[in-house]
Design a protein that fits this description.
- By secondary structure, the chain is of the alpha/beta class.
- The protein folds into two domains: about 190 residues, Rossmann fold, CATH 3.40.50; about 210 residues, no CATH class.
- Helices cover about 50% and strands about 10% of the residues.
- It contains 16 helices and nine strands.
- The strands form two sheets. The chain has a six-stranded mixed sheet with strand order 2-3-1-4-5-6, with helices on both faces. A three-stranded antiparallel sheet has the order 7-9-8, with helices on one face.
- Helix 6 links the parallel strand 5 and strand 6.
- About 40% of the residues are buried.
Length: about 500
């Protein structure tokens, strides 16, 4: 079996080599630190799919004494250039000379191709030539990457210097690179080592397949979240009249905490799916809007549908339900079902629109007389849920999609706190037809909360899959265009 290709990531100390490795390998455990010299040994990071190693990256220490090492190669060693590099590795074994140079050169002389990383934020200096010359002496294929890790921009000068010494030169920002950037860089690997092209092609196919699998899995996670949240109900045994308000409040708090927990669990599953486990502590990904409480006023002001869109969705859903009745009687109702359904949807939307929090109540009510004498709210089990606000599903969906987009497009080299657009109402920008379809499915989940049928879940997952595919930087399409149907509030 042919060994997977290996690439040694080399360069000067603290120029972003480990960041390149973390992003390319999707491995946030790679040690990245502002202190120079964090990497002291060579560490291999295999990139795998389904247990198969596609290629391997070797994180190396930085050059420390390139000028002196090149002088030794030119004046002390004999033979062809690669033989001189091997001589340097043998000659100084057990000494303190050229420790970093010998460490980074060892995997190259053992067959790894070269990824030479420079920092485009700092100017090119003549002493960088010694590093490039030593790498040329190895005889191994290589390419250069310009990685900016500071505010300066000397990219143009670096490109001129590198192109005279490397066949392939790329600008690659490890902190902003997404899946598409990784794929394009991997395609460049084919040109520096033609012998590795078949293995690289297999890696590309496997990575695209893995990305499709992740999108499908993320769609199921978001679908499960919506189904679980929109069907959640909790019950409480008969309440004692003396503690009814405290028990009611406790039941409502337990219900809303359960919804929050479901959302957090879904987020962690998506993060694990994309290997974002080590780099982010709990809650870091959620800033600035996603760390707001699910039921906070600013959450509902920023996400979900506008009031006008909610009314349009509930009215349309009611009309569809009424239309089914008209169809069942063969038109004998003269479309009364459609009209009545639309009216019921309109009234229901207006009635439930402002309720961010769900309220608990007795499962059976004894009417005004019973409540007047103090027995109407006691003696019967209490229930809360499903959450009746027609915008709740859209708010939850927006939060899930924003979170997904941040995870799917985020480079593994980044360790800062992500920032998200608090005003990004994804749901509000969808075509009216899609909003109505989603609203109808959300309402159906509420009605069928005790026993959701497979068809409803599958139809919802189909809709969510389309949104997930569009939000993935490597996905097949774009989000549907903004609605322009003249609905109020659009």
């Amino acid at each position: 079996m042919v060994e997977p290709p290996r690439f040694a990531v080399v360069g000067r100390v603290n120029k972003g080599k480990s960041s390149i490795v973390a992003t390319l390998a999707e491995d946030p455990s790679v040690a990245i630190h502002a202190r120079p010299g964090t990497t002291r040994i060579c560490t291999r990071f295999p990139v795998e799919v389904d247990g198969e190693v596609l290629f391997e990256l070797v994180d190396t220490p930085g050059f420390e004494e390139a000028d002196r090492a090149l002088d030794w190669l030119e004046n002390e060693a004999g033979g062809e250039r690669p033989a001189r590099v091997r001589a340097l590795l043998r000659h100084f074994v057990g000494t303190d000379d050229f420790i970093e140079e010998r460490t980074l050169l060892a995997p190259i002389m053992d067959g790894a191709a070269i990824l030479y990383v420079v920092d485009g934020a700092h100017p090119f200096r003549s002493n960088h030539k010694a590093e490039m010359e030593i790498l040329r002496w190895t005889g191994r294929p290589g390419m250069a990457l310009v990685n900016r890790i500071g505010p300066g921009d000397h990219t143009a000068a670096w490109l001129d210097a590198l192109r005279s010494r490397f066949d392939v030169v790329r600008v690659f920002d490890a902190h902003t690179a997404d899946f598409t950037d990784r794929i394009e860089l991997l395609q460049s690997f084919r040109t520096i080592d033609p012998a590795a092209a078949p293995a690289i092609d297999r890696a590309l196919d496997a990575m695209h397949g893995e990305r499709r699998r992740r999108r499908a899995e993320a769609s199921l996670i978001v679908t499960d979240l919506l189904v679980d949240a929109l069907t959640l109900t909790l019950t409480e045994a008969a309440l004692d009249a003396e503690a009814i308000e405290q028990r009611r409040a406790a039941l409502e708090e337990r219900f809303h905490d359960a919804l929050r927990t479901r959302e957090q669990d879904a987020r962690r599953r998506v993060e694990r799916l994309y290997n974002h486990v080590v780099a982010w502590a709990e809650g870091e990904l959620d800033r600035p809007v996603l760390d707001a409480d699910l039921f906070a006023e600013r959450t509902w002001d920023s996400l979900g549908l506008s009031d006008g869109q909610v009314i349009a969705v509930t009215t349309g859903a009611g009309a569809v339900t009424g239309g089914a009745i008209d169809a069942a009687v063969g038109g004998a109702s003269f479309l009364a079902g459609t009209a009545i359904g639309a009216a019921v949807g309109l009234i229901g939307g207006l009635t439930r629109l402002g309720r961010r929090y769900a309220t608990a109540g007795p499962t059976e009510k004894l009417g005004a007389l019973g409540r007047a004498v103090g027995v109407g709210d006691t003696g019967k089990p209490w229930r809360i849920g499903p959450h009746q606000n027609p915008n709740f599903g859209f708010v939850l969906l927006d939060r899930a999609l924003l979170h997904y987009r941040s995870v799917a497009g985020r480079a593994h080299a980044r360790q800062d706190h992500p920032t998200l657009d608090a005003a990004d109402r994804i749901s509000a920008g969808l075509p009216a037809e899609l909003r109505r379809a989603l609203g109808g499915l959300f309402e159906r989940l509420r009605r069928e909360h005790a026993d959701v049928d497979r068809e409803t879940r599958q139809r919802l997952n189909t809709r969510i899959s389309g949104l997930i595919d569009a939000l993935d930087p490597a996905g097949p399409g774009e989000l549907p265009g903004a609605a322009s149907d003249g609905e109020p509030g659009v």
